[in-house]
Structure formats: C-alpha cells, structure tokens
Amino acid sequence: MSKRFVSFTFSLVFLLSAVFLYKAMMVVEPNSATFPTASTATISVNPPTSTAAVGQTFMIDINISDVVDLYGWEFKLRWNSTLLDALNVTEGTFLKMGGDTFFASKINNTAGYMLVDCTLLGDVPGVSGNGILATVKFYVEARGECVLDLYDTALVSSAEQPITHTAIDGNFVAIVRDVAIISVTTSKTVIVVGEIVNITVVAKNEGTETETFDVSVNYTLLVDPLIGTQTITLEPGESITLNFTWTPTTAGRYEIKAYTSEIPDDINPDDNVMNTYIYVGLGGSSGRGGGDRRFHMNLLT
Asked: Which residues face 207 on adjacent strands?
C-alpha cells in the first residue's frame, strides 16, 4: 500500500536528493489514474511590480491563493541577469501549516533563473487557502526593467493529483533618482549697485520617481549669502521655471549659483548645480554714465 508522495523534476541534483532522503521507499501504485484537480488556484509574484535603486535590495513573495488540498509545489523563476542577482530564496509559511516539509532550491545568477521545490512529508492532508510559498531576495546591479517570469509551475494534491492553476508573472523596474538644474539666467549681465536683477532657474526631474526638493540661489563674492529658496515637487520628466529677485549692494563680479537640496541615490549629482556671472558697478551722479561704463569695462577685461 503506497504512502502519499509528490515527485518533482526541476533538476537532477535535487530530485536525487529528495528521492534519497525521503522517497526511496515510497511506491506509486501501477496503473493509477491521474486527473487534474479542479481549482481556481493562482500562483503569483507579489508585489506585481517591484522597484529599487541600483545598489539596493528588494524582496518578492511567491503567493498562492484559492488552493485546495495543496501537498507539494514547484516553480521556476527567471529574470534579467544583467540587472539583478538573486541573493537567496526561503520557504514561506503556507505549506508548513500542514506539517513537516522538504524544501530545496537552486539559483543560477549567471543564467538568471532559479528552481524551487517543496513538499509535505508523510501521510497528511494538504493545505487549503491563501499564503506565501516562498520569498526571494534580489540585489539590483544595474538600471533597467525586466519581467520576473514565473514558469513551469506545478501544484500537487495529497491524492498525488495535479492541481490546475494560473501563474502570474511580476515585473521589476529600477528606480532612477535624478534631479537637475537645467539653466540659470539673469535679466541683465551688467547692472549697478541698487538695481534689481531677476534670476530665472529651470529645474527638472530626470528620474523615474516623484521628487520633492529645494532649489536655492545664492551669490558669491567674498561670502555666500542666500538669495532665496523654493520647495518644489516634480513628477518624472517634469520641469519648472522658478523666479528669484536680487538687489546687490556692493560692486564686483558675482557668481550666481542655483542648486538643489541633496537627493539620496541621485545618479548624477554633478548636474544639481549651475552658475552664471553678473557684473555690478557703482552708481554715481552720472547714473549709468561713463563712470559706470568704465568700471564695467574694467571688470569685463
């Protein structure tokens, strides 16, 4: 008389291990009929879309839902190996609710896939309901996106019958965080002390995530006084034009610098700052007469 047994063929190594450790003495009765178990079960990647930045890790669950009498399962998962490395895969809690289990996995990061297998042990009923079969942890190596392809899935009941089911893939999209100052211009490049100058700054979100950040403008001569700061929120690909005003009180050649606040994991912090120059002369009784023009000419030369 045979005991309940689930056989999986995801790899020769793990098949032989399973047979040697647990199943050498178990025999399936000859000429036994096998019919798929009617089911609305679904095995799926959760969350449906995962995001993380380069250098970060993230985890996905392989979920089961609406299953009846699950005794054993297997799946293969495939990804883009240039973008992701699988660090590990661990058994979830679902099948353990039915008793002791045998769990095995094999990860091939060169080819970008894994083989995972789990079964209950002994003459016990299967588990019904919803839960987590396994959890996979990934490391993000490069920017891009790929399918987390769940394939060659198998669900088996305690009666050694296959359970019909639907498999749903997931997706991965690498987060790109990148804000930039596109331009900084002044209404005039040569003015006199006490004259108002308008400063126009264009900032852009060049990443994939909505960002809230500060844009500041200061002037540098001997010190770095702040002209102004504005806090903005930009959707991916969105840009904005900001206006600042400044009235210089001292003559000289000034660097006008626009810059963003620090964005964690910004892929290109060098474009977070941009500058331009303005020349400020002394006003006199002649207003903008020859004296100021001579001063400006000296600055420019």
From this structure: none
